Structure formats: structure tokens, C-alpha cells
Amino acid sequence: MSSARNDAPPPDLRIVLTESLQPHEQHDSQRSDPLIERLRQEQFVINPPIVAQMDEHHYVILDGANRFYAFSHLNYAHILVQVASYDSGYVELKTWRHIVCKWETAEFLDQLGQLPLISLVEGQQPDAIAHIWLRDGRVITLRAPANDLHERNAALRAIVSIYQQKAVLHRTALTDLDAIWPLYPDAIALVVFPDYQPADILAAAHQKAYLPPGISRHIIHGRALRVNYPLDWLRDAGVSLEDKNAQLFHWVQTKLSNRNVRYYAEATYQFDE
């Protein structure tokens, strides 16, 4: 993977049918609702969603479920995406951890305990669908029936929805509790999820057995950022999808010719140099 971090190819940008995208996770209304309002006035696509090809006509959204939801809500027929492949060596799949803030620990645990079929066991157990590391030092194992993907992910959605609605939620990639607690003085708990494989993401999309928002974390080496592609070109209903992609190709060529695209060693592309 070391070469992927240093020689990532230019991003594969495409304009596709919005309806061809399949999420693997729920959208987060706290993020998607403001995004919808912003898109009504926005002039550019800044950071396109990251997708992977599922079949000839469909893509799974690796990152950007809220952006996809906003485009769908606003009835955009077409959407700009960056296509990446799990098999390329340039995509890593990890998980976010959830920091639960501004809530009482006792109420948090009580609300979780009232969920049907969810059991809380003190201590770290191997059959957990998630673990909770409390600020007071305790570790709680969350268990639930998980005979298939639908049951497992439904249980996870129920768990996350509890603190998503009642507390303030932050995502983190940090693992060191001694580093997390000082950064979030009002945090009461860290929720840690099991690792996932690409097959789990694809199955969640195929089966519509969605993960909660903000668990899967895709690291894309060569991610396109600050693209600033004109939204009016996507909105134009009088231009075919094929012509829109030809327009996109020439736009990217011009950006490259004018040296507006810069590759950083941190494996990101910025389009506004």
C-alpha cells in the first residue's frame, strides 16, 4: 500500500445518473438537511461523492451518502462522482468511532437498555456488535441477534439513533482514550465498531441492509477535493449524459493544461490552484 500513498493516479471523474447510485448507509439528516438548503444556492460541486462500480449500470456510494441524498431530494437527474475500486490498491476501508457528548451516562445506558433485543454486558466480549468505552473507565459490550446482515445492521441503526437524537455526536479515527477525553471535555463515551470488509459494504447496498451513518470510513488515495465543477452544467436538462461527460472530459483537460490541478504527497487533488 505504500506505493498507493505516493503515486495515486488522477481521479476518475464521471457524470452518472443519480438514480444509479446505491447507498450502503443511511444518510444523516443533521448533515443532509443543511446540505439541501446550501445546494439550492450553490454554484459548484466542491467534493464529489466517491463510488465503486457494482455492475454495468450501478455504483455503491463509498463516501457521500448525504450529498447523494441532497441531489436526489432536489431531483437532479445527473451527479458528478469519483469512481474508485476496492481492487485498485488505492482504497482502504476502516471504521469511524463515535464520541458521545453532552449527555448523562446513566440516561445513555438506560436508553440503550430499553431497545428491544439489545443486551448490555459489562466487560469486553468477542461477540459484540459494538463496544462502549465510558469516560469513567467501564467497558460495555452491546449484543443483539445477528443471524443475517439485515438483523445486524438494523440493531446498529437502532443503537446509533439513540445517541444521534439525544446527544452530540462526533466521529474520530483516534484510538487512544487518553488523547480523546482532553479534546472532548463534554464526552461521556466512545462507541467502537467491528471492522468491515468490502464485501460487507457491497452486500449492504445490494440488500438495502443499510449501516447507520458515520461508521464506514473509506480512505481514498488520490481523492478529488475542491473540484468546483459548475452545478449549472449538471442541472441542464437539455444536454445528454454523454455530452455532459464529454464536457467534463474537456474541462478536466483544460484544468490540467493550465496547471490548476496539483497532486500532494498526502494523496489529495485540489482543483483551485
Can you describe what's shown?
It is elongated, with a radius of gyration of 20 Å. The protein contains 8 helices and 18 strands. The protein has 2 domains: 135 residues, Conserved hypothetical protein from pyrococcus furiosus pfu- 392566-001, ParB domain; 96 residues. A hairpin with a 5-residue loop joins strand 4 and strand 5. The strands form 5 sheets. It has a 6-stranded antiparallel beta sheet with strand order 9-11-10-13-8-12, covered by helices on one side. A 5-stranded mixed beta sheet has the order 1-6-4-5-2, sandwiched between helices. The protein has a 3-stranded mixed beta sheet with strand order 15-18-17, with no helix packed on it. The chain has 273 residues and is of the alpha+beta class.
Could you state the order of secondary-structure elements as H and E? EEHEEEHEEEHEEEHEHEHEEEHHEE
What portion of residues is helical? 25-40%
Strand order of the largest sheet: 9-11-10-13-8-12
Number of domains as seen in the coordinates: 2
Would you spell out the secondary-structure blueprint of this structure?
Elements: E1 12-17, E2 21-23, H1 29-41, E3 44-45, E4 50-53, E5 59-63, H2 65-73, E6 78-83, E7 91-95, E8 97-101, H3 105-113, E9 119-122, E10 130-134, E11 139-143, H4 149-166, E12 168-172, H5 177-183, E13 187-192, H6 198-207, E14 216-220, E15 223-225, E16 229-230, H7 231-235, H8 241-257, E17 262-263, E18 268-270
Parallel strand pairs: 2-5, 4-6, 15-18
Antiparallel strand pairs: 1-6, 3-16, 4-5, 7-14, 8-12, 8-13, 9-11, 10-11, 10-13, 17-18
